Each structure stands twice: as structure tokens, then as C-alpha cells.
Amino acid sequence: MWLFALGAVVLGSTGQMCLKLGVNGGIVKSLSNPWTLIGVSLYGLSFLCWLEVLAAWPLSRAYPVLALNFGLVAFFAAVFLKEPLTPMQVAGTLLCAAGVALIGAGR
């Protein structure tokens, strides 16, 4: 089930990056931008993975895994969009990952 959880996180984060690329021309133009369409499609796949996770895990265990999105989006934004990644963002990401690990280990 961890594979579906990871799939939900990676597909959702990648979808977020595609949406960002798609809306740079404004909201009206974004509706026909291929990046926007790819982003929505990836979100759809992420949703399907997430449904599998919800069917198998208690919500209190599953939901914290989504916190990994914060770190992955920050990493993707730094690498692909050249956005700055501050030490505070890195520390926050590591704390989120540690929290997810603790919640997962507690079951």
C-alpha cells in the first residue's frame, strides 16, 4: 500500500508543477494550455491512488503521508522553476518527513 501512497504524493506534486507551468499565461489561457491538462490528469491519477490508500489504511495513518507533498513540491520548484529553497524550508520538510515516519512506525 505504500506504493499507492507514494504514487499519490509523487503524482500530486508533479501535477502541481505542471499546473504552475500551465497558468503562467493567466487563467483564461491556462484552460487550453497542455501543461494544465497534464497537471489535471496527474491529479486524477493521484486521486485514484489515494482512494486505494484510504480503502486500506485508517485515515489517521494515511493523511499525514500527504505532508510529504510540501517537501517534494519545494524540491521540484527549486530544481525546475529555479525558486529559492531556504534553510527554513529544508528544516520544515525534514520535520514533516520525520513526523510521517513516526506516525507510520507507530502502527
TrEMBL record:
InterPro entries reported for this sequence: EamA_dom (IPR000620), EmrE-like (IPR037185), Small_drug/metabolite_transptr (IPR000390)
Membrane topology: Multi-pass membrane protein
Residue span(s) of domain EamA: 36-103
BP GO annotations: lipopolysaccharide biosynthetic process
Listed name of the protein: EamA domain-containing protein
Transmembrane in keyword set: yes
Keywords: Cell inner membrane, Cell membrane, Lipid A biosynthesis, Lipid biosynthesis, Lipid metabolism, Lipopolysaccharide biosynthesis, Membrane, Transmembrane, Transmembrane helix
